[in-house]
Amino acid sequence: MNTQDYIQKLYTKLLAAAEIAKYSKQDQEIYEESLKHFRDLKNVMDTVKEEGRIEGKIEGKIEGKIEGKIEGKIEVASEMKKKGLDIKFIAEITGLSEKEIIAI
Asked: What pTM does this model have?
């Protein structure tokens, strides 16, 4: 932000503060209460957003681990199948279904 933009932003804030200073005591209290309510809601939204990000990362890691385990089972089953081992035996060892093993 350049100096001119900063000065403009500062003047805008000062003008807003001057307008608020003109409010009656009751209107100032209402304004302050609504401002507090707005900030509380914003903080809640920011917290929810951050928790959502964290939850998404955790879900992604879990899904990645599950996919990795499945890929590992498929690789083992493929090698066992290449060696000519029985499909039922491969299914028992890997936990994959016979249909999945046949499709490999």
From this structure: 0.51
